Amino acid sequence: MSKKATLVNQVTGPLFIDIANAYISKFDEVILITGSIEPTSAELDSRIKVLMKCKYKRNKGHLRIYTWLLFFMQIFVYILFNKNHGKILFVSNPPLLPFLGSNFSDRKNFDFDVLVYDVYPDALSNFGYIKEGSLLYRLWDRMNKKVYLKATRVFTISNVMQKVISRTIEKDKVEVIYPWVDMSFIKPIEKENNWFVKEQGLLDKKVILYSGNMGITHDLMTVLKTAKKLSLITNNFHFLFIGDGAQKEKLVAYKEDNKLSNVTFLPYQASEILPFSFASADFGIVSLGKGAEGLSVPSKTFYMLATGSAIISISKPNSEVSNLLRDNSCGVSIGPSDYQSLFEFLISIGDSDLKKYKENSRSLSNHFTHKNAYKFL
Question: What is 4-177's CATH number, 3.40.50.2000, 3.30.470.20, 3.40.50.1980, 3.40.50.720?
Answer without folding.
Answer: 3.40.50.2000
